[in-house]
UniProtKB/TrEMBL annotation:
PROSITE patterns: GNAT
MF terms (GO), sorted A to Z: acyltransferase activity, transferring groups other than amino-acyl groups
Organism of this sequence: Paraliobacillus quinghaiensis
Residue span(s) of domain N-acetyltransferase: 136-274
UniProt cross-references to CDD domains, sorted A to Z: NAT_SF
Gene3D superfamilies given in the database record: 3.40.630.30
InterPro entries cross-referenced by the UniProt entry: Acyl_CoA_acyltransferase (IPR016181), GNAT_dom (IPR000182)
Domain of life: Bacteria
Name this protein carries in UniProt: N-acetyltransferase domain-containing protein
Residues spanning the membrane: none
Length: 274
């Protein structure tokens, strides 16, 4: 595969045309190509007859090398796996449809270990405007120090890094500033942030919601559902459709998302290969 060091307009158009063939499952990479190419990470492609055929994208997110891939055909899986073997990075987290992740893992003689995730798309026909609640507010997080400290606290709570380096990588200022560009939102109770959610990618039609986190002291009281409902409202207000993922082994999140109007699209996986 070829490393893309400079993305000129013609190549950018070809890559986006390829990714938009499956826009629903490619919001993360599409977003960075369209909106934040300076923060894209590493991008590898193969081309044939002037068209992009396979894509591998890796971006260190403070917790792992978050890795998206999109093959055109069966040969593409091998090309992507061979590129990953050549790079040989640590903490590579594959993200994709479960059947696709399984095929990549087979080249490493590994099997899927984690429970499947569920990839959801919001059904706009089930939408109803959310009720306002006393003492609960929502706002966009900013780059002020108090917000940065709170985002760091919530990121640590969500990802649970086990080393000082892991904590430092996850709360790196430049990484958090990148996340703020895409969108981080607080839920506040009586004026104090008690949780957050963020967007990981935006396309022409979809916005992906991720890292939905509520402080442990406030769990079990409906704050997570209220936060998710706010995110849905915010996305629909710009005429896009929310998508998200959660583990099939998390019945509370499944019940919450499906009660809001999210419909399963496919089995999904986040799986470490190293």
């Amino acid at each position: 595969m070829k490393y893309v060091s400079l993305m000129r307009d013609e190549l950018k158009k070809k890559i986006l045309n390829f990714l938009y063939e499956d826009e629903l499952f490619n919001p993360f990479l599409i977003h960075f190509i369209e909106n934040q190419p300076e923060n894209i990470g590493e991008l590898y492609i193969t081309e044939s007859d002037g068209c992009v055929e396979n894509i591998l994208h890796m971006k260190f997110d403070g917790n792992s090398y978050f890795t998206n891939f999109y093959p055109k055909n069966e040969k593409g899986y091998r090309a992507i796996a061979e590129q990953l073997q050549l790079l040989n990075y640590n903490r590579v987290l594959l993200s994709g449809k479960r059947k696709d992740v399984s095929k990549i893992l087979s080249y490493f003689t590994k099997d899927l270990k984690s429970a499947p995730d569920i990839y959801y798309k919001f059904d706009v026909n089930q939408y109803f405007k959310q009720t306002t609640y006393p003492d609960i507010t929502f706002r966009v997080a900013t780059c002020c120090q108090s917000d940065m400290n709170k985002i760091s606290e919530f990121m640590i709570g969500f990802f649970k890094p086990t080393s000082e380096k892991g904590i430092a990588d996850l709360t790196d200022k430049n990484k958090l500033l990148e996340d703020l560009k895409v969108g981080i939102y607080f839920i506040e109770y009586k004026g104090q942030p008690i949780g957050m959610a963020r967007y990981s990618g935006k396309t022409k039609n979809f916005i992906d919601i991720t890292t939905v986190y509520i402080d442990p002291d406030y769990r079990g009281k409906g704050f997570g559902k209220k936060l998710m409902a706010y995110m849905v409202d915010d996305i629909l207000s710009v005429n896009k459709i929310p998508v998200t993922q959660t583990s099939s082994s998390n019945p509370i999140a499944k019940k919450t998302y499906e009660s809001l109007g999210f419909i399963k699209q496919d089995d999904y996986s986040f799986e470490f290969i190293s």
